[in-house]
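A sample follows:
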Amino acid sequence: MEDRSWKKIEPSGTPPVGRSGCLLVPLSEGKIMVYGGYSKTKVKRDVDQGTVHQDAYLLSQEKTDTTGLKWKWQSLKPLGIRPSKRTGMSMAVGLTRAFVFGGVFDEEEDEESISSVLFNEIYTIDFDNQRWNQVQLTGKREPAIKPRRRKDVKAGEEEAEESEEELEETSEKLEQMVVEQQNKEEIVEDDGIFKVVIHGPSKSNNGIFTSEGETKTVLQPSPRMNSAMALKHNVLYLYGGLYEEGEDKQITFSDFYSIDTTKFNEWAHLVEDPTAMTEYLGSDDESDEDDEESGEDEEDSEMDED
């Protein structure tokens, strides 16, 4: 870093296979961990097979090295609860641990179609023992209800009886509003290339179980990959990301979230993104290509008949 020049190192040991979409985690004592990723191997001519990795390797400097050029690879056995197979995870680094979010797992259904599964969980990696841990959001606690005196209880019962009918009417109105909102769809004006449909909000409200066996919802970003993440003063910030379905449907988000890593109750939605509430319906170019292909097929069939 002093002269800002690159120097090639050739570590000893068995290195990981070439890959993309992996995590490069800086650990204590200047060590580096490589985790996961995606690689392709040629099966036969013009046919490649993709592999999503879950292995881990440690790159550390030789103890007797004074030049900074002698390093060695070491295979690691991942400890703790690690993420399922995926790539495109986001990472932010703290003092004693790293935070990992999201990712995608692409499964080839056949030679022409791919099924994508995206994630929105949080994992941590401890720098000292390289142990994984999945974060369980607790949800925000309800404020404690103070015990009431007998007079207050009696008065409260009378007020409750009077407001019971009003509460039922309000509940019916809210339920009706929710139904109307769920059934509402708005077609955005077609610009000649893309069409989108506006649906419900992008945030994901996932249910969690409380100690009493009840479920409650917590605010989380929707599943995505390749988001930008940063950690400042124990607050984890997440911006944007990419959502995809197969090879044809992709949406880039610009929403912004934060979460307190000392509590891990739920995410706070700082900036909303209308794009995250859209559904991709394809483009005119795709339909034109389909028309051309169908036209070519018709011409071929006519030539065969002749």
